[in-house]
């Protein structure tokens, strides 16, 4: 037994001394001291079967070899670390590579979430040009020339009066309704432009999210059901909704959707400007004239549309107090 221990000690010492990396040392440590298959561990497990005499002589020796080898491994480990540090190719003052701090913009995160919701319900994701004609941006949406919503003050024209930066994502709606046959089920996230002076709450561009459905037999109940499911997805199952009549030229009837203020539960606070409700989106049944001007027979088909601004929603969600921060370089959230 003693000679076996001597052989083990000799071999282990040789192996430890010839190690060139900390990884190799770890392997050797496990080879001899692993709880399940370590050579010395296994040897010590035999101790109970020895006679008292054998235990007296072998026990202390085995323990000594064990602690000597462990000390040798540690010594060798320190030596390897020191050798590494002295390598002229290693510059300890060299700065670490910058950590990857990138993440998806909060607006895009919300768009992605909304897209995944609507994809689940069978909607396609649509897109369209940001430079748009007055035809698609106004006329086909039941906004004839001279309509207050086409006010030149609000619109950024590229080539007045026909070419402009789209003022709403409804322009994509009129394009898709013109280009495709029903049934149509599409959502369109997009950037829109208005002739606004930049401030903490307004910018000359912002984001909208629009959805529309056209098919035979679509009613306002479909719209309400869709909006209810969507708001529960956005704000949680206990959200309280309020639908109320509101005028939008491209729909009839038009319907505004409010949620009960989640901060004051309707009692009134600064967030809801003491109204108890917060307006989230505008919606309605697509106007007879809109369908007709887009080449869809309004006697056969009907449809609904809804649209919302994304910037304020994102600002609330991420507690961003100034819209300009959304588009600056220093947007950081935790
Ligand atoms: Zn409130």
TrEMBL record:
Keywords: Aminoacyl-tRNA synthetase, ATP-binding, Ligase, Nucleotide-binding, Protein biosynthesis. It is an enzyme of class 6 (ligase). This is phenylalanine--tRNA ligase. It catalyses: tRNA(Phe) + L-phenylalanine + ATP = L-phenylalanyl-tRNA(Phe) + AMP + diphosphate + H(+). InterPro entries: aa-tRNA-synth_II (IPR006195), aa-tRNA-synth_II/BPL/LPL (IPR045864), Phe-tRNA_ligase_II_N (IPR004188), Phenylalanyl-tRNA_Synthase (IPR002319), tRNA-bd_arm (IPR010978). Residues 108-315 form the Aminoacyl-transfer RNA synthetases class-II family profile domain. PROSITE patterns: AA_TRNA_LIGASE_II (PS50862). It holds the Pfam family tRNA-synt_2d. The gene is pheS. CDD domains: PheRS_alpha_core. GO terms for cellular component: cytoplasm.
